[in-house]
Amino acid sequence: xxxxxxxxxxxxxxxxxxxxxxxxxxxxxxxxxxxxxxxxxxxxxxxxxxxxxxxxxxxxxxxxxxxxxxxxxxxxxxxxxxxxxxxxxxxxxxxxxxxxxxxxxxxxxxxxxxxxxxxxxxxxxxxxx
Length: 129
What we know:
elongated; mainly alpha; two-stranded antiparallel ribbon; 129 residues
């Protein structure tokens, strides 16, 4: 991840600045995260305080990348098949679009700047047609 891709603000700071959640909701979700593990955004969504679209909006600001709300996408089965299920599950990635003319696969992931993940996916999908 280059310096330009590194998060400048923490997710909770962005969510508060954007007015997507309250400080009390953040504190509660952080307590749940400490107690049960998982991700802050997941706890906020699970409690109904944040929408998936709101989380995606905040993450795009944090990582300076494009965002996609997967629940709003219709993903073709052949696109899903481009990454083996065991790799997708282990690396928490979801392929959602493939442009055959450009040989470009679009994936949703937790950390778009993770160079190890990018290299692994390039290797795994190198035979995409």
